[in-house]
Target: Methylenetetrahydrofolate reductase
Amino acid sequence: MHLSDAYADGFGLSFEMFPPKTAAGDEALRVELARLAEYDPAFVSCTYGAGGSTRDRTLDWCRELKNDFGQNVTAHFTCVGAGTGDMAEWLAEARDAGVSNVMALRGDLPEGGPDEDPWQPAAGGLRYANELVAFLREQFPQFGIGVAGYPEKHPECPDPATDLANLKLKVDAGADAVFTQLFFTNDHFLRFRDACVTAGIDVPIIPGVMPVTDFGRIKRITAMCGSSFPKEFASALEAVKDDKAGQFEVGVDWAVKQCRELMDEGVPGMHFYVLNKAAATEQILDGMNLAPVAA
Ligand SMILES: Cc1cc2nc3c(=O)[nH]c(=O)nc-3n(C[C@H](O)[C@H](O)[C@H](O)COP(=O)(O)OP(=O)(O)OC[C@H]3O[C@@H](n4cnc5c(N)ncnc54)[C@H](O)[C@@H]3O)c2cc1C
Model:
């Protein structure tokens, strides 16, 4: 399904996975994906490891999602560190694998990143995601295109207004939908959505939801991506820090409340960062009264 159709006829659900590092991880993921497939997602997306570290694994998983799971597939792709010839080669393979959409990303900068003044892309490469969107529109017009949006601004950007102007460049270059970085306070998302509308960004803005099931892991993730963690949520998790089941329950409860509010706010869809596990997302969807389609 092309992204421009994913939200046209009602609520669009999507799940994001990453390629495991081992054969045992692949086997375990297949079991989790079969459970999530019962919710009939608009698409499943597969991440692209930083600096192209999962170049082949991402393609393998896109093929499997398409051929064995019958899913509509969105392939994440980052342009940092690659030349356009190399990019075109990978994108042609993705197209031939039956990928419908590309999540067009710059990717995180290599060591030295933004402090390299000015940061230089690879020879013959692209500097920002808006250039990748333009490249895709020109060379691979069949793909739907998703881009990243940051309710709490991208960590490198000095202020929200500049970050929003940069997001508008991606949409003006041809993106079909914006998928947000994870957030735990809906006010951040709602303010961001209002600012997008004011800026004339008129494509679906899809909230990215990450179920928290392990406080230690989420602390590492938020430290990297710059999303803030509400004190109330942190204290509730701290109180059950030695109890895995307790952390799971607190995390699911928070996400259910968050997602119900977002539904009431009329979001056109939700993108779940499932971290290759089904259980928490299943419980959240049940809490939102979204039953498996097979049920
Ligand atoms: C939904 C989602 C999925 C993701 N999937 C992956 C993945 O699979 N693999 C991965 O490695 N990473 C992934 N990321 C993380 C992403 O790669 C990083 O956040 C990265 O640092 C920025 O990528 P971007 O596409 O947002 O970059 P850009 O949109 O290029 O923005 C990067 C920075 O540059 C600024 N900027 C943008 N355009 C311009 C311009 N024209 N002129 C000046 N400044 C500009 C922005 O304000 C921002 O600060 C994902 C993030 C999200 C939200």
Notes: The beta strands are 12-17, 43-46, 73-78, 101-105, 144-149, 177-182, 205-209, 269-273. The chain has one domain: 3-287.
